[in-house]
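cron nightly-structures :: item 1 of 1
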Amino acid sequence: MRNDDEGKEILLYYIKSGESCIMSFLGGIHQDTSKVRAVAEDETEILFVPVDKVITLIREHDDWLDFIFRLYHKRFEELLEVVNAVAFKKIDERLILLLQKKVELSKSKTITVTHEQLANELGTARVVVSRLLKQLEVDGRVELGRNKITLLQ
C-alpha cells in the first residue's frame, strides 16, 4: 500500500506465496527507506535476506537475477492496472474488481473485510464504499454481513 501525507492510502498490489515486494529489494539495494508498506491479511511467514546477500545472489546466480526482473515486470504491470483503474474506471467498477481479486486470493466467495478496509484500498471514503455495497446487494451481486461480503456473481 502507498500512503500520502494526510494518511490516505491506496492498494498497489498483493504479494502471494513465493513472491516479494520489488520496492523492498530496491530500497535495500540502494540503502533507502521503502516508499510503500505491507499489510499481512493472513498468517504469514516472511524471509528476510540481508542486503549484502541479495547483491551477492544477483551477481552470482542468473536465476536470482531473472527472478528479480520477472518480479519487477509483474509489479510494474500491476501498478499500471492501478493507474488505469484510477484514471479510467468509476469507483463502482474498481470496487467489484477489488472484491473479485480478494475472492480469487482467498479461494472463497465470502471474504472477511470491513467497508473501511475496502475504502482504504481503493483510496476513497468509507461512506462511498458502504453506499456502493448496499447498491450491489440490492442488485443481487453481493450479500453483506458483519465484516464479511459474499460475492454472488
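cron nightly-structures :: done
The chain has a mean pLDDT of 90.
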